[in-house]
């Protein structure tokens, strides 16, 4: 088969690595890819959101399957455009991707099916939003969320009423995030441990992957600004089978059933971002795709053939398809550019990659890298994902950090506490 992968981050390098192992994968293209993906696929300079260009490329190159990494093209309708052209696409159609594309849509759907989530209200009028907030905040802290796609910048977990009022002003009055923040969700703040539960679904059957914990803050001890993710690990000692079954029966399956009932079945990966409060899972958000960096720890443990699984999901055959993961542990440490998530330099040479990748039980996935005059250099905020595998979390962690220590570029920083605080 001829497969086209959309995206160019660490998640897509992990996807390319796993797709390449499939007996069905004869040719792999990536748009746009990165320096790591280029070792596995033919990279083509097409941006993930250039839908007509992607469809043309897929047609001209007789692509049999398109696998989409990031959310933006899915929310914009890439799967619909490909399906109209008769090209199978792994990823939900536009109407189903609204689960990530609009937080108000997702919250209203959760409320309709009684999926546990924080109480909320939706506003586009600043005065009404402020009035609700003042009343609500008197009893409990609130979180302000831009409704639309905001690349991780649209959620304000506020400590004080003043901060929350500022967030409303920023979104609804100043239009600080443009149209994405023209409508907001105000919801009660939840407290507990977060968990990413990714499920493979064909619109009817949902098969869970092992839960993952990711680290969003830039600095050790969960301090500093939010980032795209500084690391993650699986398995989670606190993710009991009962907890997972509760999340599936109260959240994931009702949402998938309701999407099907509405005539907009959800196919692909449904990622539920959960908060575990008093042993009960609550939904914080849905994502319409594989997580980044969750994918970098999940795919190395996946035992099946990813192409077969993707086809089974797009063709509605998951009921008869097992989804199996090995019982080992995996820890991912993100190596970031100096200054990230704020301003950072790019084009800095990366050393030690060869030595690090030769260590046992280590995989290195590239995120923001490119090749320049034969040398791999930095090209983004999150530069590399170092994954350690092991029979225990401790062993996986040791392997990841041993490899991270081999790698260097000017200004490189990473968290040293990934998978350290385990129940
Ligand atoms: P979201 O994109 O909605 O998952 O929000 C991003 C992050 O904000 C989450 O991973 C949580 O860390 C935090 N967050 C979102 N909603 C809440 C909430 N209701 N209570 C506490 N933290 C939240
Ligand atoms: N790891 C967070 C995300 O993929 O959105």
Structure description:
- With 423 residues, this protein is an alpha+beta fold.
- The chain has 13 helices and 20 strands.
- The chain has 4 domains: 2-91, Rossmann fold, CATH 3.40.50.20; 125-182, Dna Ligase, domain 1; 193-325, ATP-grasp fold, B domain (D-amino Acid Aminotransferase, Chain A, domain 1, 2-Layer Sandwich); 329-404, Glycinamide Ribonucleotide Synthetase, Chain A, domain 4 (Alpha-Beta Complex).
- A 5-stranded parallel beta sheet has the order 3-2-1-4-5.
- A hairpin with a 4-residue loop joins strand 10 and strand 11 (206-208).
- Helix 7 packs antiparallel against helix 8 (161-173).
- The longest helix has 21 residues, at 241-261.
- The model has no long low-confidence stretch (mean pLDDT 96).
- The protein binds adenosine monophosphate and glycine.
- Residues 214, 229, 287, 291-292, 294 line the site of glycine.
- The site of glycine has 6 residues, from loops.
């Amino acid at each position: 088969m001829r497969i086209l992968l959309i995206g160019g981050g660490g998640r897509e390098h992990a996807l390319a690595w796993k797709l390449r192992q499939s007996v069905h994968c004869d040719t792999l293209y990536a748009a746009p890819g990165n320096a790591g993906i280029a070792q596995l696929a033919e990279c083509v300079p097409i941006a993930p959101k250039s839908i007509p260009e992607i469809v043309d490329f897929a047609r001209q190159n007789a692509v049999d399957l398109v696998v989409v990494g990031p959310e933006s093209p899915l929310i914009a309708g890439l799967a619909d455009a490909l399906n109209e052209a008769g090209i199978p696409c792994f990823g939900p159609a536009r109407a189903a991707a609204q689960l990530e594309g609009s937080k108000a849509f997702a919250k209203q759907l959760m409320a309709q099916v009684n999926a546990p989530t924080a109480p909320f209200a939706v506003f586009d009028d600043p005065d009404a939003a402020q009035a609700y907030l003042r009343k609500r905040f008197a009893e409990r802290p609130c979180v302000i969320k831009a409704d639309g796609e905001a690349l991780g910048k649209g959620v304000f977990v506020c400590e004080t009423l003043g901060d929350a009022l500022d967030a409303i002003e920023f979104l609804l009055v100043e239009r600080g995030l443009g149209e994405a923040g023209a409508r907001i969700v105000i919801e009660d703040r939840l407290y507990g441990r977060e968990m990413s539960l990714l499920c493979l679904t064909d619109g009817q059957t949902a098969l869970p992957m092992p839960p993952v914990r990711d680290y969003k803050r830039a600095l050790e001890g969960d301090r500093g600004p939010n980032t795209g993710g500084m690391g993650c690990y699986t398995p989670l000692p606190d993710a009991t089978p009962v907890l997972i079954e509760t999340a599936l029966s109260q959240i994931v399956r009702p949402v998938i059933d309701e999407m099907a009932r509405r005539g907009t079945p959800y196919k692909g990966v449904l990622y539920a971002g959960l908060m575990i409060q008093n042993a009960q899972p609550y939904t914080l958000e849905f994502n319409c795709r594989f997580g980044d960096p969750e994918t970098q720890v999940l795919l190395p443990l996946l035992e099946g053939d990813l192409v077969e699984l993707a086809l089974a999901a797009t063709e509605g055959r998951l009921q008869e398809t097992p989804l199996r993961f090995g019982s080992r542990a995996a820890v991912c440490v993100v190596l970031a550019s100096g200054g990230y998530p704020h301003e950072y330099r790019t084009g800095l040479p990366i050393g030690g990659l060869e030595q690090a990748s030769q260590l046992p039980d280590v995989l290195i996935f590239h995120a923001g890298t490119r090749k320049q005059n034969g040398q791999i250099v930095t090209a983004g905020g999150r530069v590399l994902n170092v994954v350690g595998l092991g029979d225990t979390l401790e062993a996986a962690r040791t392997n990841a950090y041993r490899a991270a220590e081999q790698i260097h570029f000017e200004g490189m920083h990473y968290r040293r506490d990934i998978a350290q605080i385990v129940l």
